Here is the input.
Amino acid sequence: MLTKEQACERVHDIVGRARAAGADASDAVFAADRSLSVSVRMGALEDVERSESEELGLRVFVGRRSASVSTSDLSTAALDALVERAITMAREAPEDQWAGLAPESRLMHGAAPQLDLDDATEAEPQALKQRALAAEDAARGVSGVTNSEGASAGASRSMLALATSHGFTGAYGQSSHGLSASVLAGPTGAMERDHASHSARYASMLEAPEVIGRRAGECAVARINPAKVASGAMPVVFDRRVSSGLVGHFLGAIAGAAITRKTSFLLDRLGAQVFAKGVTICDDPHRPRGLRSRPFDGEGLPVLPMKLVDEGMLETWLLDSASARQLGLEPTGHASRGIGGAPGVAPSNLYMEAGSIPPETLVGEINRGILVTELIGQGVNGVTGDYSRGAAGFLIENGEITRPVSEITIASNLKDMFLALTPANDLEFRFGVNAPTLRIDGMTVAGA
Here is the structure.
């Protein structure tokens, strides 16, 4: 794995070559990754995978025309050919009046924040195998579990570097560790499946394999013999396993591209109340060891913690430089990019703040409703906000979680759902996007 200094040299060099070859401006991304994963099933090793890659992407501008190219061949001859090809392509591309690098005055300068994203450990196959075996053994040890889809453990380290022709060069490394288990419970012909997983920057932060496995087994067993549900309007409680999905739909609606194309159900709602007054949604790129922490965005701009929603009020769009120019606004430091193509937008560690009500109270106030633990399908219209998804979970009766349910559909409109949303006080930081347990009253539930 290259050091940060070596990665910076790679992108700085290719940007310089592009300028020397006739590009008016350019930027480049370098990504190196090394990963190892081990899968087991029924107590036996099933698969070991190891991958290593190094890729470089170059974007050049000739006037208002641009082109992007990428390569995994980093030899001198290949990079020279890459530059020539990119400039030739850019000269033939259509003009885009909004295209260009980020404003030079906004670039990050000085030392990047220290976010502690790399534990600098190299995983060994045997250690990952034992971790996966322990998780599956714990899952299969739960009474009622009858089969296994297996368990897997993995680890990776990566390095990302970015350089622009107008003055930014930066790089950062990160590590990632993960563990998951999936099992089935119940008799043949009526089995129910569930899983559990955990990811962390540091191996030492992973939950114990026995905890993950036992959770997978218990979740699967709890789903045995699902009941039928009569259709109607009722409260729906979104478990923390799925509640972050609602925040994800919100993100899609405030992305700069959706606003410039006028394809968002929140169009023209900037500065207006779009959630219930007790709801605040934050983005924190500086969270130490966060799964989506980063010292700068995909265009070299500094990133800062901010509130996207404050007490229900929509405070900002997510903007890269191109969408910001088109809207007459400033970029927000949310540019995100891969090796190829122009930047898009993405949050960092996004979360909905915890409310003040325990989840037991949210459930206890419901006479008849549904606790959703799994969502199925993609039935969400980002233009209108119409929401209709398959779901599974548990029936709530007289304030108690009772029988499992499956093959149901929950439906409403996201605009109404956001305004009717009540967050519980049980926020945990387990994913890149996190939310507490959420209750939404008055959703339409269609049973079998």
Q: What stands out?
A: Residues 4-20 form the longest helix (17 residues). The mean pLDDT is 96.
